[in-house]
Amino acid sequence: MASPITVAALYRFARFDNPPALRAPLLALGEAHAIKGTLLIAREGVNGTIAGSAEGIAAVIAHIRALPGCADLDVKYSTAAEMPFGRLKVRLKREIVTMGQPEIDPLASVGTYVAPHDWNALISDPDTIVIDTRNDYEVAIGTFANAINPETRSFREFPEWFRRERERLLGQGKQPKVAMFCTGGIRCEKSTAFLKAEGVEEVYHLKGGILRYLEDVPPEHSLWQGECFVFDERVALGHGLATGEYTLCQACGSAVPKGERCPCTSS
Q: What is the pTM of this model?
């Protein structure tokens, strides 16, 4: 029986002086180990999801951790029965997660990290506002109970949404606590930094994101509802990071429950 494919979702905000110089060695190493997936490199750090053998993934992770400021690289591991990517891409970008707010620096200021086992107590507090920072198609297949859905089509829309809804969300009196979450934690690094720059004092985010929560918190204690969309051919993951019950519509790219027809194919 073949060994399962190891999948590593990773990110680290760091300061890279010369991102182009990092691309070729990383691409060569990945190709040498038959790694597939996508890595994004920018002046602000590295982000991506890659898949391959356990040994190959370990080699790439060790290489990235040796880069300046990346010793504490955040990595979440899962498995796949089949390779979930078609090829390896190492891309140079302006941002490793695009928010369109160049003045926001997660290395300078972010919200308070909350461990998965402490998350339920925070979001169950009636004085806490819970915001899902992901896009509408991700929220559609799973989220935390009572979380606010900004209904954004891309993360770039999040700042405008918050500024437009701020008064409704926070009110005029004492500010509530704001707890935010995303798939793996990277979008919350920027969204919490953004809220703090906007003057919101008590800002929290789920450390390791939904993926870490689904890995660490057993189903019987979970407040998660549904499955978590992931950007590979597995489509969605459930508790224990098991592959979920969704497939991608080949016509429109939407996540559809296995065995069901996508609404876009209806006459």
A: 0.92
pLDDT at 266: 67
CA 175 from chain center: how many Å? 27
Domains in the chain, start-ordered, CATH in brackets?
A: 5-92 (3.30.70.100), 112-226 (3.40.250.10)
Model confidence pLDDT, tens digit, residues 73-99: 999 999 999 999 999 999 999 999 999
What does the pLDDT look like over 15-36, one tens digit per residue?
999 999 999 999 999 999 999 9
Encode 95-131: b = buried (16+ Cβ within 10 Å), e = exposed. bbbebebeebbbeeebbeebebeebbeebeeeebbbb
Output the six-digit token pair for 149.
């859905």
d(CA 81, CA 89): 21
What angle in degrees, to the nearest 10, is found between the helix axes of 19-32 and 54-65?
A: 160
**CB-based contact 132:181 (threshold 8 Å):** yes
Q: Which two tokens stand for residue 239?
A: 């508790």
**From CA 128, how far away is CA 155, in angstroms rounded?**
22
Write phi, then psi, for 250 (nearest 5 degrees): -70, -20
- For the annotated catalytic residues, the residue numbers are 182
Residues in Cβ contact with 13 at an 8 Å cutoff, skipping those fewer than 6 apart: 44, 45, 69, 96, 106, 107, 189
What span, in angstroms and rounded, lies between the C-alpha atoms of 70 and 81? 29
Q: Are strands 128-132 and 45-52 parallel, antiparallel or unpaired?
A: unpaired
